[in-house]
Amino acid sequence: MKIILVTGGARSGKSAFALREASGTAGQKAYIATAEALDSEMRARIEGHRRERGPEWDTYEEPMDIAAVLRDIKDGYSAIVLDCLTLWLSNVMSATEAVEDSIREFTDELCRLRKGAGGTGVPLFIVSNEVGMGIVPDNETARRFRDLAGILNQEVAGIADAVYLVTSGIPLRIKP
User: Fold this and answer.
1) Residue span of the structural domain in which 33 resides
2) Residue 27, CA atoms < 13 Å, CB-side half-sphere
């Protein structure tokens, strides 16, 4: 599996870029959504995104065990988009104290997937917010989230074959 990390700020165009790149592959594609439809606005947002992707996309809604989903679907698609890693981290932080164990499980799975294909094959686009470019949060939980998100992004970037930073809808490849 070829792993591509796509990072940037909120509403920077990360997801659109990942979907556009993945759509360039022939065949059925998978979209792993970590968001949960907890209110009517989010339900409408999710449904709108699903319609935009079209019938060539299968959607897997998984807020927690994304490593298991990747293991299960890795051989069945021409491209996979995982959106979004920082929302997944927020879900994990809300559910367990063992956040570092969940991060390790996920990054270990990425290493297995990449090693299995030697950095070739099906592209896996991982979308993640860059949250460390603003002010220092004013509370412990927010600082912990920012720190863990930075660590997670660094670890995934280290595993990835390519890393893109998207700002104002413009992708910049920062890791060849």
Assistant:
1) 2-175
2) 11
CATH number at residue 17: 3.40.50.300
Helix (H, G, I), strand (E, B) or coil at 16: helix
Catalytic annotation present for 49? yes
**Strand intervals (E) in 17-152:** 29-33, 57-61, 79-83, 123-129
148-172 per-position pLDDT tens digit: 999 999 999 999 999 999 999 999 9
Under DSSP, the state recorded for 29 is E
Question: Domain total for the chain?
Answer: 1
- Could you give the residue ranges of the DSSP H alpha helices within 24-65? 40-53
Task: Find out whether 31 and 71 touch, Cβ atoms under 8 Å.
Answer: no
107's tokens: 């990054």
Residues in the chain: 176
**Helix (H/G/I), strand (E/B), else coil: 36:** coil
Q: Which of 13, 49, 93, 146 is catalytic?
A: 49
What digits encode the pLDDT tens for the residues 54-89?
Answer: 899 999 999 999 999 999 999 999 999 999 999 999
